[in-house]
Amino acid sequence: MATAGKVIKCQAAVAWEPNVPMVIEEIEVAPPQKNEIRIKVIATGVCHSDLYHLFEGKHKDGFPAVLGHEGAGVVESVGPGVTEFKPGDKVIPLFVSQCKECRFCKSPKTNLCEKSWSTERYAQMSNTDTRFSCRGKPVLQFMGTSTFSEYTVLNQIAVAKIHDDAPLNRVCLLGCGISTGYGAAINTAKVEPGSVCAVFGMGAVGLAAVMGCKNAGASRIIAVDINEQKFEKAKVFGATDFVNPKAHKKPINEVLTDMTNGGVDYSLECVGNVAVMRSALESCVKGWGVSVLVGWTDLHDFSARPIQLIAGKTWKGSLFGGFKGKDSIPKLVLDYMAGRIKLEEFVTHTVSLEQINDAIHQPKSMTCISLLFVL
């Protein structure tokens, strides 16, 4: 391409500081260096983690930054040493890299990678090394990806090559939310056929967890949310029961225990709220119940009575659904194309990047599930 080896000027939504609206700016995107790929972003979703960094985490050393980590695009150019990718390839950026060389990548027990951005700057949610600049200042690449930009640059260990026929304005959702919820059910919880599950939070991640429970063969899937308007959508993904905690005088864990003869086999917390995490654990049956923390937060400690675990329950967490990205995301794309998983049904709003500040609050609305930006 004519732009290969040159600095590209393009539009991006820059978060200059926390808790302040993003600004559509012209940024400079440097050419890819050794083992790097420059990608033209075609579509990107808004995920809770983007809003968390801007409005909740607010770490001062994590700004200025270009947010976004749930995208898909086309390779524009590659740097020296890149052999796996070529210009024109369809790809999905990965916020959890897979170098295939470190002890974590070589272990089947985890999808972490020692070469990830999170190894040293977990709280800031970005590396200091960046290919972005604006107004003469470096701009950080959020979670190593920054898909709220027309172009971005990533190391090849953080990119998954996908099928040439994949619709980028749908499979971009596999870059985070859908993979996270779906994998939490099938990989982390390891939901078994005939089991009873409860999923807390009916956003995109929670609905994907419901879909995972259904595909794993759960016989009963209880959707838990204070927004009853989302229950019809949950039914589409496989939910069989619906509970609004505010509609009951008892704590939600007692409600679920009464409904299920002592508790559910699996619970998945997809909200990112430590109080809900405890409720999800306490909703599990003693002896073998498994509760998975899926919702992203790092602001508060969480707690539970020791007897919950002593009595045989398991409490565990899930990052990116336990998927090793380079290996698994291309397979999930094929699953979508074959009709084995849903993506179309998640999309409720599509807008342009220029509308970002008006649109980013939509995921918290009564009707929004997934919000897409088309660049």
TrEMBL record:
What is any one GO biological process for this UniProt entry? formaldehyde catabolic process
Q: Cross-referenced InterPro entries, in alphabetical order?
A: ADH-like_C, ADH-like_N, ADH_Zn_CS, ER, GroES-like_sf, NAD(P)-bd_dom_sf
Q: Name one GO cellular component term.
A: cytosol
UniProt keyword annotations, A-Z: Metal-binding, NAD, Oxidoreductase, Zinc
- SMART domains for the chain: PKS_ER
For molecular function, the Gene Ontology terms on record are: S-(hydroxymethyl)glutathione dehydrogenase [NAD(P)+] activity; zinc ion binding
Q: Name one Pfam family in it.
A: ADH_zinc_N
Q: Which cofactors does the annotated protein need, by name? A: Zn(2+)
Using the record's annotation, list all stretches that form the Enoyl reductase (ER) domain: 19-372
Recorded family membership: Belongs to the zinc-containing alcohol dehydrogenase family.
Protein name listed in UniProt: Enoyl reductase (ER) domain-containing protein
Organism of provenance: Pygocentrus nattereri
Lineage of the organism: Eukaryota, Metazoa, Chordata, Craniata, Vertebrata
